Amino acid sequence: EGMIELDGKPIHFKSPIDARRVGIETVYQDLAVAPAMTIAENLSSSEQVTLEAQKHWIAPVRDSVIPALMIVGAGIVRAISPSWDGVFAFVGTLLDLLSVGLLLGGIGWIVYNVFNWRTARFAVTNLRVMREEGLIKHRSSATMLTSLSDVRTNQGILGKQLGFGDIVIYSQSGDAGVDRFRSITGPMEFRNAIMAQKTALAT
User: Fold this and answer.
1) Residue 135 CA to chain centroid, in angstroms?
2) Are 179 and 169 contacting, i.e. CB atoms less than 8 angstroms apart?
3) Cβ(153)–Cβ(131) below 8 Å
4) What pLDDT digit, counting tens, does each position of 86-141 carry?
5) Rounded to a whole number, what is the distance in angstroms from the first to the last CA of the chain?
């Protein structure tokens, strides 16, 4: 809710086309020209964080299964690499290079997963549900509490024991507005905080 003023006078638009005619445009956050903003930097002047969460440590562990297998594979390749001389010496050289590539690739992938885990943040404010995560492929989302239609949690047996789970947020825009927070800490508390703030806005 609010009011738009142009040259000190209130103005109303029936469509985005009307706004463009007077020189008003929407400016989207483009990571190619602007760095990713933190949740605190994205807050409006009247907005306050009521609950903040992050990804559980299970996330980088689960995402690092393939790179861990790459590291194991590097050891296997190195062990079977022949030490032939002469014409077939290049076979051992190729296998050694493959071993190094698998090792460095696996280690780099794991480091990337750990960095993503450490930088992922989720928050409930008095106005929105927000998410900032990802390094190369940055994902940023903010759903207004007033547009929420449902919040669901998915927490298996292991998740209940270790305190993690997935949250799916549904908005009034249908499938296009579905937002998924995977491997988040305290999913039930996060969902309850969302519903509490939504109820507070409605009263």
Assistant:
1) 9
2) yes
3) no
4) 667 788 888 889 999 999 999 999 999 999 999 899 999 998 899 888 777 778 88
5) 16
